[in-house]
């Protein structure tokens, strides 16, 4: 930091402050999402999939809706975009 020109330091520090503020805002939003879907069994099941986090699980649940409307589990996976065999 000390080797940066003063103008670059100002820009870097400003960017770091903005990043910190955005991270705090994202954490708050994710907390609200987690609270809103805490009692949704489908989201809890989706969270057991390797690589699927809270946002991915919630978005998938929101897109698919009631999975019982599909006759087979494979159709749910395809509709949600979770079937790698579908290009």
Main sheet summary: none
Radius of gyration (Å): 20 Å
Number of strands: 0
**Spans where pLDDT lies below 50 across 5 or more residues:** none
End-to-end Cα distance, whole Å, is 47 Å
Structural class: mainly alpha
Q: Taking all residues together, what is the mean pLDDT? A: 90
What overall geometry do the principal axes of the alpha carbons give? elongated
The portion of residues assigned to helices is 55-70%
Helical region count?
Answer: 4
Beta-strand proportion: under 5%
Secondary-structure element string: HHHH
List the helices and strands and how they pair.
Blueprint: H1 6-37, H2 41-46, H3 54-64, H4 73-80
List descriptors.
87 residues; single chain; mainly alpha; 4 helices
Walk me through what this model shows:
With 87 residues, the protein is mostly helical. Helices cover 66% and strands 0% of the residues. It contains 4 helices and no strands. The chain has helices at 6-37, 41-46, 54-64, 73-80. The longest helix is centred in the first third of the chain and has 32 residues, at 6-37. It is elongated, with a radius of gyration of 20 Å. It starts with 5 loop residues before the first helix and ends in a 7-residue tail after the last helix. 7% of the residues are buried. The model has no long low-confidence stretch (mean pLDDT 90).
Tell me briefly what this model is.
By secondary structure, this protein is mainly α. Helix content is 66%, strand content 0%.
């Amino acid at each position: 930091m000390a080797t940066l020109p003063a103008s670059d330091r100002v820009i870097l520090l400003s960017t770091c402050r903005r990043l910190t503020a955005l991270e705090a805002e994202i954490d708050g939003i994710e907390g609200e999402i987690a609270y809103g879907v805490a009692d949704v069994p489908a989201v809890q099941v989706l969270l057991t999939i390797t690589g699927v986090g809270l946002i991915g699980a919630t978005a998938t649940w929101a897109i698919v809706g009631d999975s019982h409307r599909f006759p087979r589990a494979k159709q749910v996976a395809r509709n949600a975009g979770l079937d790698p065999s579908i290009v």
